[in-house]
Amino acid sequence: MTHEIIDRYAVIGNPIAHSKSPLIHSEFARQTEQALIYTAELVEPGHVAEFIKNFHQQNGRGLNVTIPFKEDAFKLATHLSKRARRAGAVNTLLINDPEHYFGDTTDGVGLCTDLIQNHKIILKEKTILILGAGGAVRGVLEPLLENRPGHLVIANRTVEKAHQLAKDFSDLGNISGSSFDDLANEKFDLIINGTSASLAGELPPLPDHILNENAIVYDMMYAARPTPFMDWGKQQGAKNCFDGLGMLVEQAAESFYIWRGIRPDTTDVIKKIRASLTP
Ligand code: ATR
Q: Which domain holds residue 203?
């Protein structure tokens, strides 16, 4: 009798119980007929390296990494993609052997795929505002700038962080930092919320009347109900208000591609995950 050894994958984080990743990757595996197991694993801070070693011994071949371990994963990766190096964070590890871990970040590609392919938004030459200057925003700037927006403005409560981030990416395009107050005389085609405000049910302190005609607002967070930022967009007359559920599924699809070399179709998976959300 032969025992088939099945490749294992997991998402690690703390907390992790509510992660949608096992559901998403099980759907991808079923659709693409890949034999694999994907689980969510709670890891204690300071134990990431030990976890990876044990996981590899149990046939672990790849990991997704979420809060608070994206910077640990960046440090532990022995090889990094160009985009992960620039982002300073890793959300995908490919573990081919116990000594060599390849680290990549798929969040930015996930965001751009959702914007461009799923929502048919053109980024080229558009005026884009992104809110927040933490790890979530740093991780998506390079792919956003690759789409050649006319101007990308980063606004943050702590304005120094917005200026620093703009400086770090200034070689890639027309990018600048701003306070929330200084946005009052500007207009934008697309506003992306990359702050953690929605997690706390809060709204970043945005001035009124900063949307161009046909403007779109996009919250990188998602929930069963529209976030406070999406409600704000609607009230300000945005043409469309989207949440980040598509980004979540698209970043997962890119991770799946890195591990298995096959690109799953995301349309039905996005619908399935949407239907699984409970208010
Ligand atoms: P992440 O890794 O999710 O980006 P982070 O690095 O802690 O998390 O960054 C959180 C971001 O959300 C920061 O830009 C933070 O602004 P400050 O740098 O001024 O703290 C922003 N943020 C959190 N709550 C906010 C709120 N209620 N209004 C506006 N910005 C908020």
A: 108-243
